[in-house]
């Protein structure tokens, strides 16, 4: 796989500083039952990295000590981690709102019996990958048969109250098929609602339109096809300065499976750790762990940036919460 970091390091992206952290995004491991082309984590069935119980405990320590109210659990398929359900239970006992970034087909994997019911019982918000409402497009991007299983999973979630009961929000995630920016989120959401309701009787809470990041598997594919420079030019040309106010890295900390900290999960995949900064904005050379954070205040800390950051500020903007504009 082609490395993209050497092509992204030199950047004129505007400097950013952190606000107070309201969201802890935790990657429980890179193991997944799918291998999607657009995956910036390069996750798949052959990845074995998994967060251990000791690190799970450090996550819970930070949630309590820093009074963080949102836990965003991701992967891979985070549900494949042996301690996923323990983390959900214990975070909810702290009064933390929990998000599960779910690929939907995981509900039908061996060992995941009762997963949907477990999520509903603990009022876990589900953010579900569905890169299109068309079977051909989804199966082309994610693998044969994925669309049908995704529809079955969404119907099962609807039957439990997801997308219907306000306590059980169900968000769908759209990614473009290739090196293009997402269309306007509001109009695309209307299309999703119409098509999924008409053909399958599916309802959901909201749609999140995410740009594909020029890193990991997707970035390597762009390089192989000779499209990397053109895609970066598209992102840079569509930069909207106003989006800097709302980018997720200003109020979110990303944690990898070993417990090390990053400004976002894209930086995590590039191996660009969160680093402590001094009053002049100069960054240290070390990397910080969950245990280090307990003694630190990250508010005002400089954010580590590179050229891929234009993926979050291009056009309507893009973050783990969808469009920014």
Question: How does this model look, in words?
Answer:
This protein has 325 residues and is of the alpha/beta class. The mean pLDDT is 90. Strands 6-5-4-3-2-1-7-8 form an 8-stranded mixed sheet. The chain is built from 12 helices and 8 strands. It is globular. The chain has one domain (5-313): Aldolase class I (TIM Barrel, Alpha-Beta Barrel).
CATH homologous superfamily annotation: Aldolase class I
* Tally of distinct domains: 1
Q: Taking strands numbered 1, 2, ... along the chain, how are they ordered across the largest sheet?
A: 6-5-4-3-2-1-7-8
Question: Which CATH first-tier class would you pick?
Answer: Alpha Beta
Secondary structure: number of strands: 8
Overall pLDDT = 90
| Secondary-structure class | alpha/beta
What is the fold named in CATH at topology level? TIM Barrel
User: Alpha-carbon distance between the termini?
Assistant: 33 Å
Which consecutive residue ranges, at least 5 long each, have pLDDT under 50?
A: none
* SSE order, one letter for each helix or strand: HEHEHEHEHHEHEHHEEHHH
CA-based gyration radius: 19 Å
Provide the β-strand percentage band.
5-15%
Q: Report the CATH architecture.
A: Alpha-Beta Barrel
Instruction: Give me the number of helical elements.
Output: 12
Overall helicity: 25-40%
Question: What shape does the CA trace take?
Answer: globular
């Amino acid at each position: 796989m082609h490395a993209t970091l050497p092509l992204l390091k030199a950047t004129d992206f505007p400097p950013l500083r952190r606000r107070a952290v309201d969201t802890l995004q935790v990657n429980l491991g890179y193991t997944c039952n799918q291998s999607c082309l657009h995956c910036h984590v390069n996750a798949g069935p052959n990845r074995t990295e998994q967060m251990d119980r000791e690190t799970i405990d450090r996550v819970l320590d930070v949630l309590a000590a820093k009074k963080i109210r949102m836990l965003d659990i991701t992967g891979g398929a985070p549900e494949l981690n042996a301690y996923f359900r323990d983390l959900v239970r214990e975070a909810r006992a702290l009064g933390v709102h929990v998000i599960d970034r779910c690929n939907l087909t995981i509900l039908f994997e061996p060992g995941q019996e009762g997963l949907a019911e477990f999520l509903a019982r603990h009022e876990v918000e589900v953010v579900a990958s569905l890169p299109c409402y068309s079977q051909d497009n989804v199966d082309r991007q994610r693998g044969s048969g994925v669309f049908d299983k995704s529809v079955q999973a969404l119907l099962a979630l609807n039957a439990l109250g997801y997308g219907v009961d306000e306590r059980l929000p169900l968000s769908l995630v759209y990614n473009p098929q290739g090196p293009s920016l997402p269309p306007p989120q509001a109009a695309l959401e209307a299309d999703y609602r119409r098509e999924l309701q008409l053909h399958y009787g599916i309802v959901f809470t909201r749609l999140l339109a995410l740009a594909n990041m020029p890193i990991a598997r997707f970035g390597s594919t762009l390089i192989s096809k000779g499209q990397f420079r053109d895609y970066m030019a598209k992102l840079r040309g569509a930069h909207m300065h106003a989006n800097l106010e709302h980018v997720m890295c200003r109020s979110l900390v990303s944690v990898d499976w070993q417990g090390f900290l990053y400004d976002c999960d894209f930086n995590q995949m590039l191996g660009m750790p969160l680093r402590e900064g001094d009053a002049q904005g100069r960054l240290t050379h070390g990397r910080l762990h969950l245990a280090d954070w307990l003694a630190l205040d990250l508010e005002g800390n400089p954010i580590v940036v590179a050229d891929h950051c234009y993926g979050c500020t291009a056009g309507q903007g893009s973050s783990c919460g969808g469009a920014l504009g």
